[in-house]
Design goal:
Layout (H helix, E strand, L loop, with lengths): L1 H36 L8 H49 L1 H36 L4 H85 L2 H12 L13 E2 L9 E2 L16 E7 L17 E7 L15 H9 L3 E2 L9 H22 L5 H6 L117 E16 L7 E13 L1 H8 L7 E5 L4 E6 L4 E3 L8 E6 L1 H14 L5 E11 L9 E9 L3 E10 L11 E8 L4 E7 L3 E3 L4 E6 L11 E10 L9 E8 L7 E5 L3 E18 L1
Helix pairs in contact: 1-2, 2-4, 3-4
């Protein structure tokens, strides 16, 4: 057993070291992704760095997700180490009688051996004296010694037989106990290793999918697409600018320089107070002329330009050139070809001149604050500003589809009307205890609220059914979002991952110690979680694969209320223990599309599929049995609460966590003594016990008592109803389960949990 504890601790350290390595690797990949984002964004290769960056970030996310899973696994191992130490201590006390049996048989064996040797010695001595002819008196003395040795030897033989029987019995029982402990130890270690392997395997699958996506993105990035992206990002437009009536002409002869002005504006003749910007354009046009041109035309053509800005009135800095006037001025700039032009391509060079003038004018006007930044950004020099329009498509109204003959049927399914709001389950009440909708939200903790539930620890989930989804039994569905973006992009040819969660609420009322007076009602709901990437696959396919599933152990359900807008079932099924369902895919697609429009940043979307009520068997269906005893006098009140863990109520048995017991006590309590320690709230006149996890591995197999003595100043107290709260992960009270039918989908996570609704007890 000691070696078992050592191996458990060593395994925990090994997993912790692996998590440290994965975290360091993830951080290094994150730094590498930042390096890719800092690479040059110029040239045709620039878009490829985005692909590198996204792929590296996804790889880092995969490894960080593995770190999170390993850390959760380390917590499980540490919890097992603590349980193992308690079990070993308990076992040591139980086998104390075996130690006594071992020590007893060892002492008896030694005494038996000595008595045997004494008996043989005395017998040989008597025989020797007879042969030597000793006197009768000496022979009689020797005979007495032999007789005494014989009796002693006989008694020790009997004692040894008794000690041996007890030793064999004790050792058999103890050996079986030790073997059971070792078998359980090896089994738990195997479960831990299996979880470890599964986490690593899921990470490798994610990495492989990410690499496959990277390869596809690289293969789909063609030379033409890179050139096109560069042209779109650097180009000045898709249409050629046209010529206007006015033009600037060039000639080999000297010309009088003309200043540039905006039409319709008065020129200021005071050139002394006017800043004139002068520059020269020098461009070689040799390739555009024939060999018969003169030598003068072989020289680079120079154009001397002066731009005289419009003056402000009264020293104010108002904008003097409007957008329309600037566009008109720029439109008037053009270059006309000379008679010497023999090639039509020369017109392209002339257009380039116009572009040069346009660019320079925009720069100059912006530098002199003639236009605001917004005006410059919205300016289109070569055409009117166009505005886009939006249009909406009408919705069709058709009945929902019939059940498909196969989950992957290719028949066209006509979509039903798109829901205007989130689909809601029928408003019909489940029979039983009148239960007010009370959110059991981990995000709003109080003294009577449970701690946040652990997030889903899986690649596509673990996390898809978020902690924002409350444990309430409200009939209004809720949209849940994921804890973060998925590191894997879905491919249409893969089996699409679906996560499912069963959440149940147990309501119970215990009256005294009579089990027949216990009233129990258990309700639950089933939620499906879809990754955001699945919406694109659904919308791109004219007939997506129909999602079908089978519920098992439905004979334990008293009532099932499916979501009528999304879910269909066959009422003619003969098997009472299973029930088949399939989803209305057009309605599901429309709902998921609407959810993504409302919350585009979410990575997962939760859909309430059905609610159900569980058949209860009285107190046997409650995971924690309660009995309350009150003894009230004018000066004191004695309270005792007995509880017992009931593993048979759960499928499978699981620990009850965050157990809290709240008891109101009247009579003006002045002092409280309790075992175990409780918290007294004087303002509310309530005592609160907070207990550790309760399971069959707890002390007394989960049974115990809460005791308190209250001293009163205004007694006696009136016995009140106490309330209990707890929850459990990994189990349900109904035992209902789900199995996907057909291909096209895979169940990535099946999460089960239950919590208390109104859990009360009276004396």
């Amino acid at each position: 057993m000691k070696h078992g504890q050592i191996s458990s601790k060593e395994l925990s350290e090994f997993i912790r070291e692996r998590a440290t390595i994965e975290e360091a690797y993830s951080r290094s990949m994150t730094k590498l992704a930042k390096t890719a984002s800092n690479c040059s964004q110029l040239g045709t290769f620039a878009p490829m760095w985005d692909v590198f960056k996204q792929s590296t970030e996804k790889l880092a996310a995969c490894h960080m997700e593995l770190v999170r899973k390993l850390q959760e696994l380390i917590k499980e191992v540490q919890k097992y180490v603590e349980e193992q130490a308690k079990n070993h201590k308990k076992t040591k006390e139980e086998v104390a009688s075996t130690l006594e049996a071992v020590q007893n048989i060892q002492s008896v064996s030694q005494a038996l051996q000595k008595s045997k040797e004494n008996y043989i010695s005395k017998t040989l001595e008597q025989e020797r004296m007879r042969k030597e002819g000793a006197t009768q008196k000496d022979l009689d003395k020797a005979g007495l010694k032999v007789k005494k040795a014989t009796e002693t030897y006989k008694s020790y033989v009997e004692k040894y037989a008794t000690a041996k029987t007890e030793f064999e019995q004790r050792m058999t029982e103890t050996s079986q106990k030790f073997q059971g402990i070792e078998e359980e130890h090896v089994l738990r270690m195997q479960e831990i290793i299996h979880s470890y392997c599964q986490s690593v395997e899921e990470t490798h699958i994610q990495i492989g999918e990410g690499q496959e996506e990277f390869v596809k993105n690289m293969e789909n990035t063609s030379v033409e697409s890179l050139i096109q992206k560069l042209a779109e990002s650097k180009g000045t437009g898709k249409e050629r600018p046209g010529n206007t009536a006015k033009s600037l002409t060039h000639s080999a002869k000297p010309r009088k320089r003309k200043t540039f002005a905006i039409p319709g504006r008065r020129r200021d003749k005071d050139t002394d107070s006017t800043q004139v910007l002068t520059f020269t354009l020098t461009i070689s046009l040799n390739s555009f002329y024939s060999s018969s041109d003169s030598e003068d035309e072989d020289e680079p053509r120079k154009f001397h330009v002066q731009i005289k800005p419009v003056q402000t009135n009264n020293g104010t800095h108002q904008h003097k050139a409007t957008i329309d006037e600037l566009k008109a001025s720029i439109g008037n700039i053009s270059l006309s070809p000379t008679p010497a032009v023999r090639d039509a391509s020369h017109q392209h060079a002339v257009t380039n001149y116009s572009l040069c003038f346009t660019t320079f004018i925009l720069f100059y006007l912006s530098s002199n604050s003639r236009l605001s930044n917004n005006d410059l950004l919205s300016l289109d020099p070569f055409g009117p500003t166009s505005t886009g329009s939006s249009s909406s498509l009408p919705h069709s109204s058709v009945p929902p589809p019939n059940r498909p003959t196969t989950p992957l049927g290719t028949a066209t399914i006509i979509p039903p009307p798109r829901p205007l709001s989130r689909p809601k389950l029928p408003a019909g009440k489940l029979t039983g205890i009148n239960e007010a909708g009370r959110p059991f939200s981990p995000s709003k903790m109080s003294n009577s609220s449970p701690p946040p539930a652990a997030p889903l620890a899986r690649a596509e989930s673990s996390s898809s059914l978020s902690s924002n989804t409350s444990l309430s039994t409200s009939n209004t569905p809720t949209v849940g979002t994921s804890r973060g973006p998925s590191p894997v992009t879905l491919a249409s040819l893969d089996a699409l991952p679906i996560a499912v969660a069963f959440t149940e609420s147990v309501n119970a009322y215990f009256k005294g110690a009579d089990p027949s007076k216990c009233i129990v009602k258990i309700t639950g709901d089933m939620t499906l979680s879809f990754p955001s990437g699945i919406i694109k696959i659904f919308t791109s396919s004219p007939s997506p694969a129909v999602l079908s599933f089978k519920l098992s152990n439905t004979s334990r359900l008293e009532q099932i209320m499916p979501n009528q807008q999304l879910l269909h079932s066959d009422s003619s099924q003969s098997d009472t223990n299973t029930k088949d369902f399939w989803l209305n895919m057009p309605a599901l697609t429309a709902y998921l599309r609407k959810s993504s429009e409302q919350n585009p940043a979410a990575s997962y979307y939760n859909v309430d599929i059905l609610k159900y009520q569980v058949c209860s068997n009285g107190i046997q269906s409650t995971p924690l049995n309660l009995v309350v005893y009150w003894k009230c006098t004018s000066s004191t009140t004695d309270l005792r609460v007995d509880y017992r863990y009931n593993p048979e109520a759960m499928q499978p048995p699981a620990a009850l966590t965050n157990v809290q017991v709240l008891v109101p006590v009247s009579g003006d309590v002045t002092n409280m003594q309790s075992i175990p320690n409780a918290i007294w709230n004087a303002e509310q006149s309530k005592s609160l016990w907070k207990l550790s996890d309760i399971s069959d591995k707890s002390e007394n197999e989960g049974s115990g008592s809460l005791r308190a003595k209250f001293e009163l100043s205004d007694g006696p107290s009136i016995p009140a109803t106490l309330a209990v709260q707890f929850f459990s992960e990994g189990s349900t009270l109904s035992g209902v389960d789900v199995e996907l039918v057909g291909s096209g989908y895979r169940l990535s996570l099946n999460k089960k949990r239950f919590a208390t609704g109104r859990y009360m007890a009276d004396c």
